[in-house]
């Protein structure tokens, strides 16, 4: 066994491995040296479907490790480890008579060829589905697990258990973050997450495409900027309103029509993410959804029509108001008089209970799904 004047550096190594899993082999090497082992591993066993896996290890021959996971885990006495308590130190003698172990297939075909005579095991967690445990392997030079080895391992096990739990949470959060980013990249609308200063915290794939064209929005010094001066000021006003948490915005956001340099129409929809008074200036507080306007009816149009009992013509006018602009622009696009569009617009106000074109834009945005088809 290695003599450690202070055990704190070893414990720090264990917690470092919780943050950076690549450090687990080094931590296990230190654990093995401290306990008096030739190898160590963090393993899990599946009691439902069967099988075992050495997630991190030190001192294991790759070929023997493969054989263990494919076959010999079935004969390992540690298969009965789950009947013991978490943190309890368990050797082969606690699992079965040692003479029976030496005569068995696991020792003769797998442990003995490697010069291994015993193992000190400690459950880190267990459930009806399986268990996770730490194993420190003893060689001929150190002999079977003794009281000193048990004492030393018992000192470290609580730290290993906590570190493994921290690592699991970190891994879960990374997976959740990766999944969340995949979902954002699956949006058909460009999504910009902005901090209070208007700096881009995250832009999904569609948003990056918008920035690449430079026809609608730019990134200047990391800040989101509109190509049109008036639109840019309106965008800044939207961000200020969202940051203040104006009652008129609530959780529904506000919409802003944008005309690109090439004359194409876009709609930006701002949604507050943080409550008023949040002080983290680097965190995203506003989400800006940007999509290109089109006269093609979105899948949500049928739902809107049924909800407000709109005629096909009224539905077309509603979408045109959202995607083309005001009454003159819509009348020109449809080839009719302004009065005709105004008549349909009045019916839309009556059926929806709204009174402004901007409210109609927000209505349609609220029904629309930004997911890619």
Would you give an account of this structure?
The chain is an alpha+beta fold and about 375 residues long. It has three domains: about 10-175, Transcription factor LuxR-like, autoinducer-binding domain (Beta-Lactamase, 2-Layer Sandwich); about 185-290, PAS domain (Beta-Lactamase, 2-Layer Sandwich); about 300-365, Winged helix-like DNA-binding domain superfamily/Winged helix DNA-binding domain (Arc Repressor Mutant, subunit A), CATH 1.10.10.10. It is about 45% helix and about 20% strand. It contains 14 helices and twelve strands. It has helices spanning about 10-20, 25-35, 60-70, 90-95, 100-105, 105-110, 145-185, 205-215, 230-245, 300-310, 310-325, 325-335, 340-350, 355-365, and strands spanning about 40-45, 50-60, 90, 115-125, 130-140, 190-195, 200-205, 215-220, 225, 255-260, 265-270, 285-290. The two termini are about 60 Å apart. Mean pLDDT is about 80; it is low at about 245-250, about 275-280 and about 370-373.
Tag the structure with descriptive keywords.
373 residues, alpha+beta, Beta-Lactamase, Arc Repressor Mutant, subunit A, 3 domains, five-stranded antiparallel beta sheet
